[in-house]
């Protein structure tokens, strides 16, 4: 009886290995990812399929807009200088394009958290009339006409048929591998560098004033908060409330990471602030009081000139130049 049992165990190990030949690489001081890789094991061929799809405008109705159009690798997968996302036929989206990195540690997606599974997140921009303006079934039909994609799907799934589920999982696999953990802050954590005195001072200011919402080492809780932004009557965006209509969700937006701020301006869900000085000024004198305002912001956060410079020095230590230059995340030429 032992021999058949061992044979089954051996076959299961082979099957497991065939499903996953990659591991997500991240520092020991990072928390455990919240994404369940058992349901979508990382596989190099699928990551490469997702990478090609990410850069392919075939996902849009007129074949002009790809995921990378609004999420550029050399901009920490954001869209620098653009207040709102841009789409087909000069269409303008509803919000600022969020930076894409460290997604494996996030439970919800989009500024309002309306997507709760990254494996289906891409449906939102694909279906959005002003972004990609396409039907997912039409995308699948286009992919199934491509000899190149037939080969790539075969390598990833064992047969050449493209489906919406496979498309979504491949896209999520590529995005899940985008990990930002090579800033100066990370080198300090690993004992490979030291903060300057200004960065040290800024670090202390950060811990006293910012860390409750922007927790280390990801520099966000990825929860939702009302940070006192004024309502824009033109955009008519109340954050989570737009989806739930719950009073407690009014002006509640997902808390972004403070990593890579150098590459991801303008800031906030609508890109209203061009610089980090504008952001700091908001917390000092721009907070709009309302019933849902985060308790931490009931009093203005005031810094003198030297403190502002020190805080900005520390925030600069969160920029990851390795991420934005990594050829593994760029379009295959």
From TrEMBL:
Main location per the UniProt record: periplasm
GO CC annotations, alphabetized: periplasmic space
Binding, heme c 1: 67, 70-71
Listed GO MF terms: cytochrome-c peroxidase activity; electron transfer activity; heme binding; metal ion binding
Domain Cytochrome c as annotated: residue spans: 197-319
Alphabetically ordered keywords of this record: Heme, Iron, Metal-binding, Oxidoreductase, Periplasm, Peroxidase, Signal
Matching InterPro entries: Cyt_c-like_dom, Cyt_c-like_dom_sf, Cytochrome_c_Peroxidase/MauG, Di-haem_cyt_c_peroxidsae, MauG/Cytc_peroxidase
Post-translational modification note: Binds 2 heme groups per subunit.
PANTHER family registered for this protein in UniProt: BLL6722 PROTEIN, CYTOCHROME C PEROXIDASE-RELATED
Protein name: Cytochrome C peroxidase
Lineage of origin: Bacteria, Pseudomonadati, Bacteroidota, Flavobacteriia, Flavobacteriales
């Amino acid at each position: 009886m032992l021999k058949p049992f061992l044979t089954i165990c051996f076959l299961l190990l082979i099957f497991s290995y065939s499903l996953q030949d990659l591991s997500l690489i991240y520092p020991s001081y990072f928390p455990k990812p919240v994404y369940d890789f058992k349901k979508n094991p990382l596989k190099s061929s699928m990551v490469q399929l997702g990478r090609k799809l990410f850069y392919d405008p075939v996902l849009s109705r007129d074949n002009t807009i790809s995921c990378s159009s609004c999420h550029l690798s050399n901009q920490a997968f954001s869209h620098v200088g653009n207040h709102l996302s841009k789409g087909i036929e000069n269409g303008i989206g509803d919000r600022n394009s969020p930076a894409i990195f460290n997604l494996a540690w996030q439970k919800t997606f989009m500024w309002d958290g309306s997507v709760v599974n990254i494996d289906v997140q891409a449906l939102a921009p694909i279906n959005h009339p002003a972004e990609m303006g396409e039907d997912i079934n039409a995308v699948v039909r286009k992919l199934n006409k491509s000899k190149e994609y037939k080969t790539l799907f075969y390598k990833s799934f064992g047969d050449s048929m493209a489906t919406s589920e496979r498309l979504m999982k491949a896209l999520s696999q590529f995005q899940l591998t985008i990990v930002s953990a090579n800033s100066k802050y990370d080198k300090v954590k690993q004992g490979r560098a030291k903060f300057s005195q200004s960065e040290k001072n800024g670090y202390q200011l950060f811990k006293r004033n910012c860390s409750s919402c922007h927790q280390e080492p990801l520099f966000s809780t990825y929860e939702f908060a009302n940070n006192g932004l004024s309502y824009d009557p033109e955009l008519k965006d109340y954050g989570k409330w737009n989806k739930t209509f719950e009073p407690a969700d009014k002006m509640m937006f997902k808390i972004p990471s403070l990593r890579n701020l150098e590459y991801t301006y303008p800031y906030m869900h609508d890109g209203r602030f061009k610089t980090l000085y504008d952001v700091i000024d908001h917390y000092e004198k721009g907070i709009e009081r309302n019933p849902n305002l985060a308790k931490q912001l009931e009093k203005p956060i005031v810094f003198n000139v030297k403190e502002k410079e020190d805080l900005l020095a520390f925030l600069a230590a969160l920029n990851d130049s390795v991420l934005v230059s990594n050829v593994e995340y760029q379009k295959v030429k």
